[in-house]
Each structure stands twice: as structure tokens, then as C-alpha cells.
Amino acid sequence: MSELKCQIITEESPSFDLSFKIIIVGDSGVGKSCLSIKASRNYFEDFYSPTVGFEFLTFNVKIEDQNIKLQIWDTCGQEVYRSLISSFYRSASLAIIVYSIDNEESFNNIEKWLNDIKTQSSPDVKIFLIGNKADLDDKRKITREQGEKFSNEHKISFFTETSAKTGLNVQNVFIQAAKELFIQHEEIKNRVSRPGSITNLVYNPEKENKVNLESEEEENRQNKKFCCF
Q: Terminal CA-to-CA distance of the chain, rounded, Å?
């Protein structure tokens, strides 16, 4: 597929052609919330406050002629609540694992988060790896090469380093997510609509998107009952 035309939608669009769920995971304190808030609201808070339960944000992008809503689910990272996060993996189209370049333990725990994703998400889920807090280069414990090596060895779709504080690569992460999910959606649509395919008898993009949005709204209501105290 040729280079996609992409534009961030800064204002709430009255309608969306596609909607995808993204879950952000990683150890507590690596900057998951700062990353998603910087991308969606262009805001950074120096004071660290652990996420309680989850935070729900959106990032809207227009790719080609399609308005796409990324539903970002930012989860709490405390180990004690890890088993309770399993419900957040359900129906995720893409998972972002975040570690901090100044925190060796958060890097060592990537594999645990990766295993959680692979065992509790769809087999088709895409996975990104993000090394956050790139502005703390003088305190760096994990080199970029280490992050790239882990990403390549585990066949992760995308890797980069970011800084929620300066905004380095932050929006690019979600733009890239939208592009990859759009491409995946188009490939599936084309595959199931080929002549002779049994699945083309039931495939309906409009119905599919409506069902996805309704299921996400119901999941949002249900998960509001969940809180990491």
C-alpha cells in the first residue's frame, strides 16, 4: 500500500468510519498516562499520580477519506492489580507496552506484559513497544539498541523512544497505530469480500463498526465499576 494520507483531527468529529481499541500497559510510574494525555490533549503534568483503575481517552485521525477514532485505555500498572486488568485486554486491536529508559526493572518486566497480552488478547492484536522518558538521557539505564533488539527478537510491530514531557514522538506513536490498524482492516475487508469466500456472505463493514462501538460503550460502563484502591 502506498504512503497513506494522514491528518490528526483536533476537534470531535460528528461521526467516525472506524473505531479501534488500544490498551496501554507497563509498570507503574513509566509514564503511561502522561504519554496518552500528551498525545490527546497536548498537556503534561510534572506531578506523578498513579492511575486509579483506568483512564479513557481518544485520539482521532483521518487516514485517506476515513475518520478513525482510537479509544485509548490507560491501565494501572501496580503489580498487585495485574490480574484484575485482564478484562481490559478483551477486544483490544493494539497493545502498547511502555517502559522507562531510566528504570531497568520496567524494561525487565516487558516480557511479563507481553505474555499477558498474548494469552489474553486476540491472536491478531498488534503490539507496540515504547521506551518513554527519553528526556532523561543523562539517567538512562536502557539503551535504544536494547529496546530495538527486544522488539526485533519478539517480532513487535513498532518500537520507538518517546518523551511525554517534550512531546518527542508521542503523537507519532498513535498516528502509526492508526495507520497499521487501518491497513489491517483493509486487508481483512478485502480478504473476506473475495469471490468464493464464505465469510463475504456475512461481512458488513457498517454493521461491524456499529457493533464494535456498542460493545466498547458497554465495556466502558462495566469497567467503571473496577477501581484499583
A: 46
CA neighbor of 104 nearest in space, from 62, 59, 60, 150: 150
> What residues form DSSP beta bridges with 8?
61
Q: Which helix (H) or strand (E) holds 73?
A: strand 66-75
- Domain boundaries 6-223, corresponding CATH code: 3.40.50.300
pLDDT in tens, 117-129: 999 999 999 999 9
Q: How far is CA 9 from CA 63, 76, 103, 178, in A?
A: 10, 27, 34, 12
Whole-angstrom distance, CA of residue 28 vs CA of residue 35? 13
- Quickly tell me which residue has 498513579 as its cell: 50
Amino acid (1-letter code) at residue 84: L
Q: Is the model's pTM score more than 0.90?
A: no
Backbone angles phi, psi at 115, to 5 degrees: -65, -40
